[in-house]
Amino acid sequence: MLEKMVNGFESFLFRRRGYVIALFVLATLFLGIRAGQLKMDAAFVKNIPLAHSYMQTYLKHQKDFGGANSIMVAVEDTGGNIFNPVFFDALKNIHDQLFFIPGVERANVKSLFSPSTRFTEVVEDGFAGGPVIPADYVNDAQGLEVVRDNIEKAGIVGRLIAEDYSAAMVSAQLMDFDPQTGAPLDTIAFAKQLETELRGKFETDQIKVHIIGFAKMAGDVAEGAKGVVLFFLIAILVTAVMVYLFSRSIMLTLLPLVCSLIAVVWQLGLLTVIGFGLDPMSILVPFLVFAIGVSHGVQMINAVRRRVIDGQTSKAAAASAFRSLLVPGGIALLSDTVGFMTLLAIDIGIIRELAISASLGVAVIILTNLILLPVVISFFDLKVKGEALGKSSAEKIWQFLARFANPKFALVILALSAALYAFGLQYANNMKIGDLQGGAPALHQDSRYNQDTFFITDHFSITTDVMTVIVEGFPEACTYNEVLTRIGDFEWQMANTPGVESTASLASVARKVNAGFNEGNPKWQVLPRNTASLVQAIGQIPTSSGLLNGDCSVMPVYLFLTDHKAETIEVVVDKVKKIAAVLDNDKIQFKLASGPVGVMAATNEAVSEAQLPMMLYVYGAVFLLCLLSFRSLRATIAVILPLYVVSTLAQALMTKLNIGLAVSTLPVIALGVGIGVDYGIYILSTMAQKLRQGMAVQQAYLEALEERGSAVIFTGLTLAIGVSTWFFSALKFQMDMGILLTFMFLVNMLGAIIILPALTSVFWPKRR
């Protein structure tokens, strides 16, 4: 039935070759124009799991306390002392410039020059205070001395002023939209403005500007992602050389490359049709689409080439190759597509877009490389020079590899594979979830962004590594001693948790204010027990401090962490949950989480929860498609088992190289399985035909190698060489993906030509 359908489809296509070509040309022109309209898109909300309970808390209170999308600008005096007129001029100019950049929440811009930056001191009559930078400030030695005194009184050293007085901080919250256009904030354009309007204008030999925050990191990642274009060109060149060495024909070299590039154009064009942009992670997908397209194109030209050598015309050879490869190639590409679609199970926008982008790209390869390529080949009068390898050399290689299907060799191979799997499983079980290095994990440690991060971490007691625990109560809850006492107990326990550098809450500030009302006596740094005294203390703390909302029903507790490494976040989150379970009651609840580290915690948990289901979906989809294709449980298991062993070894490699399972690395496993299954399907589809004819396993494998082996080995090497260029990327996450994909492409290929035949020898004992 299936064979009859394939034959009918082949007859339909090749009788209407001109119309097929015309249709593809029109579609390519249309989608090529749409591809030219594609824009980079790195929106903050795409990077967070919006449905996670932490993010529901984050979004609920974002308006009152700001979100995790913030910018911190540390202005450094290279002389090590900020108290000079040149520095204060630069600090004021940077504050003003940041204030007016579209997309900045102006009410939340904070620095020494913010009116909300005030000091309070205890005097004979009670309290006195005012702005740290007074209204009559003059930028001279006398004025700077006044400011120095006010800074000490304000208690902002470590927050707005570096602990060694070498730098001062300007921070701001960002909007989700551009107030001038109403469109979503263009994060990458905003990052460019920060670079040109702050660092470009004000950095001198005396003044250095350090900028961190999601928007700046996204901009630096997008800048580094431009290198992908160079890698793409290198990959095309390397692939072209290798395809020529394989095919020994200029025409058979150009055609699969052109068809694969058409697939890339279609994929990019379709993204704009469905309203997507291209974020820094998805920018790697076109390369993968090209590489996958070439790998299937090589299978096609290999089949055509062999038939031409046997004396068939180009048209007959193309039609015959189309018939033989449509089903295995289609199943392989459907397996890739479904494998990528399983990433939709992860509730993070950037991964879901990657899944859709990759699935679209692989799906169109079915059209461009399994249909268009043989139709185009049929128009050319091919002149093929013969085997790229000498025939005797190739036969010796295939005969050597065919031994893997011999029962004696097979048992040894399977025993070694089992031992390797057991060894890898030990390491794989120790794989960490989340980031395992300081700074931005997407960038190298020596990048400008990470150097800025390390400067701020070293010189200030607060950084963007802050987790906010939201305490939800009832209106005027902060005027009750029992409420603030619980918050104080929670803060004290968290302050003594490993990984927490400092804390801040309404309770701790209220204690200091109460001491101020009592001549600053340390004995009075307690929470007043009566409501009147407590109201007096709380009344001195404005909502602009971020410690309470308008009706005093929500009071955040800020936890400033030493870093955002996976282990640190896990320890802190576990401690919060344990303490909250004890302190929660019907009046107040301690809820995770807001702040940048709160977002990371939610992302880590989303990745952890999605890991097992994603793997089950990937293997389940591949299993069903192989079962439908081979109609044999033994054949399906023979394809799946090597993939599973390689996936386990890849996770072990991640542990060994200190690469955590994060948003950037989670898709790699699905990509590796989806692409790796192609090798086994092509080998076993040929073997299955021979086995049905009654051929012995070893002979069936030998003939499968003679027909498809060179293309499989070539494909594995080409894919691996292509992604290995990513080792030199300016992006750390791309380098990590390059290492893992190179490993999976190579080892999956080895699994298909070593472990798979050994399994078939065991599964078909009567055919030995």
From TrEMBL:
TM region positions: 227-247, 254-277, 283-304, 325-346, 358-380, 400-423, 612-630, 637-654, 666-688, 709-728, 740-764
Residue stretches making up the SSD domain: 220-379, 632-762
Membrane topology summary: Multi-pass membrane protein
Compartments, as annotated in UniProt: Cell membrane
Domain of life assignment: Bacteria
Pfam families: MMPL
Keyword vocabulary terms for this entry: Cell membrane, Membrane, Transmembrane, Transmembrane helix
Keyword presence, Transmembrane helix: yes
Protein name stated in the entry: RND family transporter
Organism: Shewanella sedimentimangrovi
Lineage: Bacteria, Pseudomonadati, Pseudomonadota, Gammaproteobacteria, Alteromonadales
